[in-house]
Amino acid sequence: MQITPQLLPEMIEAIDQAISANAEEVTALDQEIGDGDHVYNLQRGIEALKSQEQDFAALDWVAAWQKIGMTMMSKIGGASGSLYGSLFVTMSKAAKDRQMDLSVFANAFAEGVESIKKRGRADVGEKTMLDVWVPVVECLQDAASEGLSESELLDKINEVAEAGVEATRDMVAKKGRASFLGERTIGHIDAGAKTAQLMIAAVCSVVGKQL
């Protein structure tokens, strides 16, 4: 199955609906140990993407990711803007002059997530969005060797993303405002990890409809 940027409008709309439907819950999570503005900032970026979604659909993946990344950098406030912007811009560079397939996408995505690590000076186990993104990267990279079907891969991606969110509950936050609370952050799910999981689920749902 060939996934093209023509699906981007549907993906963006699905992400918008998922974040909006869970906005109250995620904001409550963020208010417990963070700044409380994560969802608001993310929704600003999503609205900017929605206004350009047909433009994205007319591009190839490399150009679309570049444009998405630059939009997110300029429109999302807080740390999320630079992190998500870096993810997509790096993916664009990694996939340049490559014929898109699962292997190329997995490699580009892995490099994008590495850019989040570097920009945020963070890694797995520190109660951030990386506790979702990194397991998903590993899932994609293992997909070829495991011989999973497309539907099985989507199910596994959702499974590891959900597990990544839940894993943050028992972690001590080491980045951002939450880090100042130390062990008091134990027992709370990270808001950034939760929105990452919601976006992954939304994209997987759109892709799954094409199977």
What does this structure look like?
- This protein is mainly alpha-helical and 211 residues long.
- It is 71% helix and 0% strand.
- The chain has a single domain, classed as DhaL domain (Serine Threonine Protein Phosphatase 5, Tetratricopeptide repeat).
- α5 (61-75) runs antiparallel to α6 (78-95), α7 (102-120) packs antiparallel against α8 (130-146) and α9 (150-167) packs antiparallel against α10.
- It is globular, with a radius of gyration of 16 Å.
- The protein has 10 helices and no strands.
- The longest helix is centred in the middle third of the chain and has 19 residues, at 102-120.
Structural classification:
mainly alpha
Shape: globular
pLDDT average, as an integer?
Answer: 95
Output the CATH homologous superfamily.
Answer: DhaL domain
Uncertain runs are: none
How many strands? 0
Level-1 CATH class name: Mainly Alpha
Instruction: Please write the string of helix (H) and strand (E) elements.
Output: HHHHHHHHHH
Percent helix, as a range, is over 70%
Distance between the termini: 7 Å
Number of domains: 1
Which second-level CATH architecture applies? Answer: Alpha Horseshoe
Query: From the alpha-carbon coordinates, what is the Rg to the nearest angstrom?
Result: 16 Å
Q: How many separate helices?
A: 10
Largest sheet: none
CATH topology title: Serine Threonine Protein Phosphatase 5, Tetratricopeptide repeat
Amount of beta strand: under 5%
